[in-house]
Amino acid sequence: MQVTFWGTRGSLPTPVRADAVQQKVVSALLSANGQSFESEAAAARFAEETLAFPERSTYGGATSCVEIALGSDQYLVCDMGSGLREFALDSMRRSAGGHSKTYNFLMSHLHWDHIMGFPFFTPAFDPEATVRVYGGHHELETALRRQQEKISFPVPFDWLKAHFEFNTLTPGERTEIAGAEVELIEQEHDNKSFGYRVALDGKSVVYCTDLEHKLENMSQEEDFVVFLRDADVVIFDTMYSLSEAITMKQDWGHSSNVVAVDLCHRAEVDRLIMFHHEPAHDDETIHRIHRETIRYEELTRTGRPLKVLCAYDGYQVSV
Amino acid sequence: MNLTCQERDGALVASVSGPIDHENADAFQASLLPAVGQAAAAEARLILDLHDVDYMSSVGLRVLMRALNEARAKSVGLVVADLNGTMREIFEISRFDKLLEVFDSVEDALSG
């Protein structure tokens, strides 16, 4: 399997501002002061090896959209945030090269930041495309149709030419989708959300976003330890610090970096990928939180090491 | 995990030891919340001496938060003291250093 992050930001698209880009350029120039580069490749190598991630790059600002390529002839995508547009363009290039036009979506939930990319999902206009939408909610179709009503968008859902199927899944049951075994778990979030475990050929990827671990219901976490057990990759909502998640942002429906590490430690997960970044955080802040999370993993480790990675728009991971 | 309480200079000092994680968070809570009640009954501050706590996972931290909520409801001042290097880092990473007043030592907390 190969995981591609098309959108990693929580709640709201967060484009990088001009002044932030200028600051990166200034910082990079200062770091390169006195250096000379024979070629573009040498300069690129310097950037990659010498500059810190927020100095040379950005975590990006598109909202949740994660592709899990199964090596089969069908697409499998978690959520339809604003990152879906980039996926759509890329998949159309791949489909033009012979990839099938069957798209399978696993929906964590139907809040706006997780469906806002769909009106710009160009393959939906292709009469040869099949779009299968899976989720734990019964309102899958309603949510997509509603955001394309006249008051919100100029192109009504009925103009779309693709063949659509909407499938409500049941937590605890395993379903074969695009050749992979998919299981879901109900999560604490406003109007509920669902996490997914995708297993293929002895490997597994878990996608758990927009979930809260409430102070008064810590015993519920045992279910997540079971759900995450021995996963190769866990993509997890790490939007807040623990103190934020249980005080002023209690009931906002999100988790923290330290709860993510603890659950992954207990479940003996191989790799944790931090996801659903707080829109108020700039690249420096996300980078710092990533470093802190790596440190927390070291401080609390009692078993095998957990690799702590941080998603950014365009990030790819092989499983 | 072990928790023992001692009255000192008008405060209740609760000394905690051992790692605190999912294995013993329930026991930690079962010991800590009565200590809050004991401090409330004595109209005393509650000082948590964490000198011998090796580390605390998110479950333990959330028990602390429950105790803090309980203390606020009972008008008890709850502070922590004497964190080792690991615990100090965990407090910083979890931002618990913004939630709870942290003293370098129990003596500092007693005079604070």
Short synopsis of the structure:
Chain A has 319 residues and is α/β, with parallel strands linked by helices. Chain A has helices at 18-31, 40-50, 53-56, 84-96, 140-146, 221-228, 242-245, 257-267, 283-300, and strands at residues 2-7, 65-69, 75-78, 102-107, 130-135, 163-168, 174-177, 180-187, 193-200, 203-208, 233-237, 271-275, 307-310, 316-318.
Show the helix and strand layout:
The complex is a heterodimer of chains A (319) and B (112).
Chain A: E1 2-7, H1 18-31, H2 40-50, H3 53-56, E2 65-69, E3 75-78, H4 84-96, E4 102-107, E5 130-135, H5 140-146, E6 163-168, E7 174-177, E8 180-187, E9 193-200, E10 203-208, H6 221-228, E11 233-237, H7 242-245, H8 257-267, E12 271-275, H9 283-300, E13 307-310, E14 316-318
Parallel strand pairs in A: 3-4, 4-5, 5-6, 10-11, 11-12, 12-13
Antiparallel strand pairs in A: 1-2, 1-14, 2-3, 7-8, 8-9, 9-10
Helix pairs in contact in A: 6-8, 8-9
Chain B: E1 2-8, E2 11-17, H1 25-41, E3 45-52, H2 58-73, E4 78-81, H3 85-94, E5 101-103, H4 106-111
Parallel strand pairs in B: 2-3, 3-4, 4-5
Antiparallel strand pairs in B: 1-2
Helix pairs in contact in B: 1-2
Keywords:
heterodimer, A: 319 residues, alpha/beta, seven-stranded mixed beta sheet, 14 strands, 24% strand, globular, B: alpha/beta, five-stranded mixed beta sheet
Biggest pleated-sheet summary of chain A: 7 strands, mixed
Choose one word for the global shape of chain A: globular
Structural class from helices and strands of chain A?
alpha/beta
The major beta sheet of chain B can be summarized as: 5 strands, mixed
Q: Count of helical segments of chain B?
A: 4
Strand order of the largest sheet of chain B: 1-2-3-4-5
Strand arrangement within the widest β-sheet of chain A reads: 6-5-4-3-2-1-14
Overall outline of chain B: globular
Quaternary structure: heterodimer
What's the order of the H and E elements of chain A?
A: EHHHEEHEEHEEEEEHEHHEHEE
How far is the first residue's CA from the last residue's CA of chain A? 5 Å
Q: SS-based structural class of chain B? A: alpha/beta
β content of chain A, as a range?
15-25%
Strand content of chain B: 25-35%
N-end to C-end Cα span of chain B: 27 Å
Q: Evaluate the radius of gyration of chain A.
A: 20 Å
DSSP strand tally of chain A: 14
Low-pLDDT ranges of chain B: none
